[in-house]
Give the backbone structure.
Amino acid sequence: MQHSTSTVSKKTYQIILDKDEYGMIFARCNELHANAEGRTEAKAKDSIKEAIELMVEDLGKDKSYSLKFIRKYSE
């Protein structure tokens, strides 16, 4: 009997990006309760990526994941 190899899909964490009235960008991942901020979207994304890497490691979760960014504001 032959075993078929199934492809395990990577976990995707959804990241919400929002902006306050002062232009500060906030990033949050509700599933991991991770939050970050930055003066630019790129800085906020970098910060949330670092936070998620640490949380995934601390929680013993699979390190094979992707991030999906959802912008809640218009540029």
The CA atoms of residues 24 and 74 lie 13 Å apart. The two ends are 56 Å apart (CA to CA).
